[in-house]
Specification:
With about 425 residues, the chain is of the alpha+beta class. The protein folds into three domains: about 20-140, Beta-Lactamase (2-Layer Sandwich), CATH 3.30.450.20; about 145-275; about 280-410, Heat Shock Protein 90 (2-Layer Sandwich). The protein has twelve helices and ten strands.
């Protein structure tokens, strides 16, 4: 706040003024200044060029706890009230203000009871005549509440920053633990995948060996045992003819033995076909499927049919064997579990795969049974087909029945 020591509303009269008139004018100016300064909330101080207070407003008591009259004329007043650690900065700012440089400074003062007050000080030169300086006008404002609020805000900010750092550290640790867990799980998944691939490879190897053994046993039964049983049957037929003329009882015995031998020969041929039907290698998958379905219908009493799409070509030997085993398992399941009256077998092919579909009108497979880890028949078929890039799906049909769909890729297709 700046005050002029001369009334702005009047111009100086030309000519010399009497000392009495000048003194009166000065008193009016002083009274006006004091009237304004005394009514302000801030503490207003007028320092002489020597630094001693010439005027101090009544707000001094509220701000410093000391009456204004105690301050007037006391050159050490500010040294008394300013905190010792803040006094050098205040003194330097005061000297700069007398030079017209610094205008404001913040510092602390101590009341007589020990209470500390934060003060913001603004300074302005009080000009005199002909460029002289009459002193400094200081305006002291109590900013304790503002400083406390700023300190509280700063402390809250620091606490928040500390909490953020702590939380960030916690998150960093959690992320590190999570990364380690992810890496561990990846290693476990890789090990599981490797184990799964090894099991699949082992399963395929065992399936190949089993198929080879079935083929060998089937041929042995068909070629060796079948021929031996046929030779025995022929020998018993001739023996029966000779014994019938001389000893009817011995002829009947020979006839009975021949019937038993014929049954054994029939069983051997049936077992040979089940292990590895010669027709699969000799005439192909379609006729082997038709023969299997015909035997299925005859032995179970379930109506069954086979339909091959026009232009259906024979699968390669290994793929034909895989589809044949899938058909065997599907027919076995239909006979054991479905309660079906009819079974339809459909054969088709796309540019990249051979497709086998077996549909029945039974009770329908439960959805969880199709993926049950204990459904070893379905699992075995699925793994066998996967070795040829195929798959197996079984699902219940709307209303009634089950559809099993087996697929193997054509050789040489991706």
């Amino acid at each position: 706040m700046k005050f002029r020591l001369f009334s702005p509303g009047k111009r100086r009269q030309s000519g010399p003024a009497s000392p009495l008139a000048a003194a009166r004018r000065l008193m009016r100016e002083r009274d006006l200044y004091r009237t304004v300064a005394d009514s302000t909330y801030d503490c207003e101080v007028w320092l002489s060029p020597s630094g001693a207070p010439r005027y101090v407003s009544p707000s001094c008591l509220r701000l410093t706890g000391r009456p204004a009259e105690n301050a007037v004329g006391d050159p050490d007043f500010f040294r008394t009230i300013v905190l010792p650690e803040d006094y050098p900065a205040w003194s330097a700012a005061l000297a700069a203000s007398f030079r017209g440089e610094a205008r404001s400074v913040d510092y602390r003062i101590v009341k007589p009871g020990g209470a500390v007050v934060h003060v913001a000080q603004e300074a302005a030169l009080v000009p005199g005549g002909k460029g002289a300086v009459q002193g400094l006008h200081l305006s002291l404002r109590d900013v304790t509440d503002r400083v406390r609020a700023e300190n509280a805000l700063r402390e809250a900010h620091e606490k928040l920053e500390e909490r953020v750092r702590e939380r960030t550290a916690e998150l960093d640790r959690a992320n590190a633990d999570l990364r380690r867990e992810v890496m561990r799980n990846r290693r476990i998944l890789k090990e599981l995948e490797r184990s799964r691939e090894e099991l699949r490879a082992l399963s395929n190897y065992l399936q190949d060996r089993i198929e080879e053994e079935r083929t060998w046993i089937s041929r042995e039964i068909h070629d060796e045992l079948g021929q031996d049983l046929t030779a025995c049957n022929l020998g018993l037929f001739r023996l029966e003819a000779k014994l019938a003329a001389n000893d009817p009882g011995a002829g009947e015995l020979a006839a009975g033995l021949r019937e038993i031998l014929a049954g054994a020969l029939s069983s051997a041929r049936r077992l040979s076909r089940r292990l590895r039907p010669p027709i699969l290698d000799e005439l192909g998958f379609v006729q082997a499927a038709q023969a299997l379905v015909k035997v299925f219908a005859e032995t179970t009493g379930i109506g069954a049919s086979v339909t091959a799409a026009p232009g259906f070509r024979e699968p390669e030997t290994e793929r034909a064997a895989a589809l044949y085993r899938a058909l065997q398992e599907a027919l076995t399941n239909a006979a054991r579990h479905s309660g079906a009256a009819n079974v339809a077998v459909r054969l088709s092919a796309s540019r990249s795969a051979f497709i086998l579909e077996v549909e029945d009108d039974g009770v329908g497979i439960a959805r969880d049974s199709a993926e049950n880890p204990k459904s070893f028949g379905l699992i075995g078929m699925r793994e066998r087909l996967r070795s040829f890039g195929g798959d197996l799906r079984a699902k219940p049909l709307k209303g009634r029945g089950t559809l099993l769909r087996a697929r193997v890729r054509r050789k040489g297709t991706a």
